[in-house]
């Protein structure tokens, strides 16, 4: 019985790649230094899987930014603004596409399906001249081969690549991206030919878009693509991998009929309905890669249950055709429990990070072959029982409070226009009010202070003094820039979700449970293992301190319940919405305490609301109902004069705009500039929005500093579709990843643009 891993985390157990990337970007190290760190990590990963007994080990999963951008490089699909002149794409062009440079902006970044991972969106059109411009897939295969490891090279499949792309600027939005299939397949053929020549016996195409609701012509594109590739693939074993949800019946039918394909991989954790399709119509003679080990969460696999599932599948496909696999890439989970020092032994026994999941996959494969490790299975069963019975998991009072929410939709007593009038009388803001999203740059010194306080190397008094000084500096800077609604900069927070989770019951935290979000950006998701409540106020002290430093409105900064949920590793023993309602009640307590402390503007970020939207349209309404309801619960009790903001970023919001309106926030700030202002199209199409709204005026994930004229041009585009009295001016997102040398001039340009347009609007009256 064979075993397979769809993909593996690439940052390294101690975030080695993150630090190497940032050192290279800061010109403190060379390209060779970066490549050496990456090669050492790849070697370690391949050896680990080989030593664990994994048969099908992946290669070409090690991206310096993301796998879709790698594919863009492979196809030579570089937008003209980057002045690439052909040849092998190097780091300068690659990272300019990802991050922008001094003269041109980055490409759009958006969420990878319903995860917190991101990818750079390809910009395509009929004028793109595709060419084989990155040989990374072959290079990595040869690199592993030289180490004695035979790998399965992985490519983003041609159809999914096109479906994940967008028309380039200047190309009609109705342009059929699939019409480019004939243009990219010759390059795929070249890659396949080189991999065959290098000695590859298997190749994996990731086609995750097959789990989405596809139209007939989109499904036909899969049939066409693999028919065209069939002769090139001759002599290779070909695996088509899907993940993140069920494969719909029509897509399953199309997939399993593809020519030249040897094996099919399915997510059997989030795609339970796919099991029924496999049982009724899986093609004979084909390999089934059964994704029974969860690649997106950190809970130890229920080995007995998975073994039972595998045994039933074995009867359908045969012992020699069944391969035990992860449900998706392990990129979405933490690296290795061996690095954990903060978690107690009971909680550790409930968990499995990527390294442990590799062991689970192989243990299941061996058990199917009759070599069951009885001690390993017994320990797993004990841990499963311990988790179910633990008093740490259940809190009866919390469960009763959440159950009592039923029967109300939790809306504020007055409509938004009435509230905005009351708020304006109190706040007295100018038209086009300026603000930022929350965080300011996290300096080396600030990180050192937090680190030393956590390690008990400095006293609480010294820590509070240092954070107070940082807040004072940020407040003073905003006043000098003449920003209208201020933030305290969040110097006490390393991460917006981690900060709140550390103060809520039912959460556990890792020391090194880092997960890549995009580029070098890593997050350390909390683990929600039990019922959630708020023992004490979490932000009132810092927000009150910041408000005391200024006469301008100071935003209280909170993370919303849906974002805390979607950016955590969530317990899998109850429905997600039940956990979300519990978090909402905890945030509600905090909102009301902030209001009592005199904070008149409270921002409740829901950056990840869109991210959690199910991949299938039939499941959208249920999710949006409880997600939006959870947000409303948090602020239902505040006065009309208290202004509730929310923030969303880096997703496609156009298809959920009516649910965003239904959140009933007073003001929403939302990512706009990096996505080519596509958010504005919904307003051009007639959607009426009556609350305050601040589409981002510049991209904070790029070091590029926008000009006053550029920002003014963006604001004018917004004024063409939005009423002057509801428009806010703000960046796309928080500023923590930027340097002050970038932030100061960018914010000055933003404020100057707003003031310039105010003057023009006033003179036009």
Automatic annotation (TrEMBL):
It comes from Daucus carota subsp. sativus. It comes from the Eukaryota. HAMAP family: Meth_synth. Its cofactor is Zn(2+). This is 5-methyltetrahydropteroyltriglutamate--homocysteine S-methyltransferase. Zn(2+) 1 binds at residues 647, 649, 671, 733. Residues 432-755 form the Cobalamin-independent methionine synthase MetE C-terminal/archaeal domain. Residues 3-316 form the Cobalamin-independent methionine synthase MetE N-terminal domain. InterPro entries: Cbl-indep_Met_Synth_N, Cobalamin-indep_Met_synthase, Met_Synth_C/arc, UROD/MetE-like_sf. It catalyses: 5-methyltetrahydropteroyltri-L-glutamate + L-homocysteine = tetrahydropteroyltri-L-glutamate + L-methionine. Zn(2+) 2 binds at residues 658, 662. Binds 2 Zn(2+) ions per subunit.
């Amino acid at each position: 019985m064979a075993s397979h891993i769809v993909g593996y985390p690439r940052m390294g157990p101690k975030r080695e790649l993150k630090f190497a990337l940032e050192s290279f970007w800061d010109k403190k190290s060379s390209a060779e230094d970066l490549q050496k760190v990456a090669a050492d990590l790849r070697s370690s990963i391949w050896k680990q899987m080989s030593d664990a007994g994994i048969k099908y080990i992946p290669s070409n999963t090690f991206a310096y930014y993301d796998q879709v951008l790698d594919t863009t490089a492979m196809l030579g699909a570089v937008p003209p603004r980057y002045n690439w002149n052909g040849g092998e794409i190097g780091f300068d062009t690659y990272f300019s596409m990802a991050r922008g440079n001094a003269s041109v902006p980055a490409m759009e970044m958006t969420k990878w399906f319903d995860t917190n991972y991101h990818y750079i969106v390809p910009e395509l059109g009929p004028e793109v001249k595709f060419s084989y411009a990155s040989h990374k897939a072959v290079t990595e295969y040869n690199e592993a081969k030289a180490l004695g490891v035979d790998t399965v090279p992985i490519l983003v499949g041609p159809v999914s690549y096109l479906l994940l792309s967008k028309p380039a600027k200047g190309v009609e939005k109705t342009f059929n991206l699939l019409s480019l299939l004939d243009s990219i397949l010759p390059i795929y053929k070249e890659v396949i030919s080189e991999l065959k020549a290098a000695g590859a016996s298997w190749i994996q195409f990731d086609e995750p878009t097959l789990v989405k609701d596809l139209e007939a012509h989109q499904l036909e594109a899969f049939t066409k693509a693999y028919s065209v590739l069939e002769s090139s693939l001759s002599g290779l074993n070909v695996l088509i991998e899907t993940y993140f949800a069920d494969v719909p019946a029509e897509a399953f039918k199309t997939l399993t009929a593809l020519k030249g394909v040897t094996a099919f991989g399915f997510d059997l954790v989030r795609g339970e309905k796919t099991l029924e399709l496999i049982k009724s119509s899986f093609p004979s003679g084909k390999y089934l890669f059964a994704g029974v080990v969860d690649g997106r969460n950190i809970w130890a696999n229920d080995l007995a249950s998975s073994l039972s599932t595998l045994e039933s599948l074995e009867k359908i496909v045969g012992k020699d055709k069944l391969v035990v696999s992860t449900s998706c890439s392990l990129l979405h989970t933490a690296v290795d429990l061996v690095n954990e020092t903060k978690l107690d032994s009971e909680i550790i026994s409930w968990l499995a990070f990527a390294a442990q999941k590799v062991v689970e996959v192989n243990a299941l494969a061996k058990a199917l072959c009759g070599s069951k490790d009885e001690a390993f299975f017994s320990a797993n069963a004990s841990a499963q029982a311990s988790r179910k019975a633990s008093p740490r998991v259940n809190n009866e009072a919390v469960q009763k409070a959440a159950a009592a929410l039923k029967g109300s939709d939790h809306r504020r007593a007055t409509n938004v226009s009435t509230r905005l009038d009351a708020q304006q009388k109190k706040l007295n803001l100018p038209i086009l009010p300026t603000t930022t999203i929350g965080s300011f740059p996290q300096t080396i010194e600030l990180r050192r202070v937090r680190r030393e306080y956590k390690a008990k190397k400095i006293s609480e008094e010294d820590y509070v003094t240092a954070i107070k000084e940082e807040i004072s500096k940020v407040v003073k800077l905003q006043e000098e820039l003449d920003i209208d609604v201020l933030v305290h900069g969040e110097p006490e927070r390393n991460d917006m979700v981690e900060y709140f989770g550390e103060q809520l019951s039912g959460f556990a935290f890792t020391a090194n449970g880092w997960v890549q979000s995009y580029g070098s950006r890593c997050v350390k998701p909390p683990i929600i293992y039990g019922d959630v409540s708020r023992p004490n106020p979490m932000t009132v002290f810092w927000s009150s301190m910041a408000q005391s430093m200024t006469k301008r409105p100071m935003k209280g900064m909170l993370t919303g319940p849906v974002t805390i949920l979607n950016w955590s590793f969530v317990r899998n023993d109850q429905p997600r919405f039940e956990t979300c309602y519990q978090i909402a009640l905890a945030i509600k307590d905090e909102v009301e305490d902030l209001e009592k402390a005199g904070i008149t503007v409270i921002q409740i970020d829901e950056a990840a609301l869109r991210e959690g939207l199910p991949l299938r349209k039939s499941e959208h309404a249920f999710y949006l109902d409880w997600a939006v309801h959870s947000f409303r619960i948090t602020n239902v009790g505040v006065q009309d004069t208290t202004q509730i903001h929310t923030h969303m970023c880096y997703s496609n919001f156009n298809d959920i705009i009516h649910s965003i309106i239904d959140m009933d926030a007073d003001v929403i700030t939302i990512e706009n500039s990096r996505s080519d202002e596509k958010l504005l199209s919904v307003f051009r199409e007639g959607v009426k929005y009556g609350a305050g709204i601040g589409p981002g005026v510049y991209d904070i994930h790029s070091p590029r500093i926008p000009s006053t004229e550029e920002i003014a041009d963006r604001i004018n585009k917004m004024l063409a579709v939005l009423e002057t009295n509801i428009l806010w001016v703000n960046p796309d997102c928080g500023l923590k990843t930027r340097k002050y040398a970038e932030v100061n001039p960018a914010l000055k340009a933003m404020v100057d643009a707003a003031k310039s347009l105010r003057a023009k609007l006033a003179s036009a009256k």
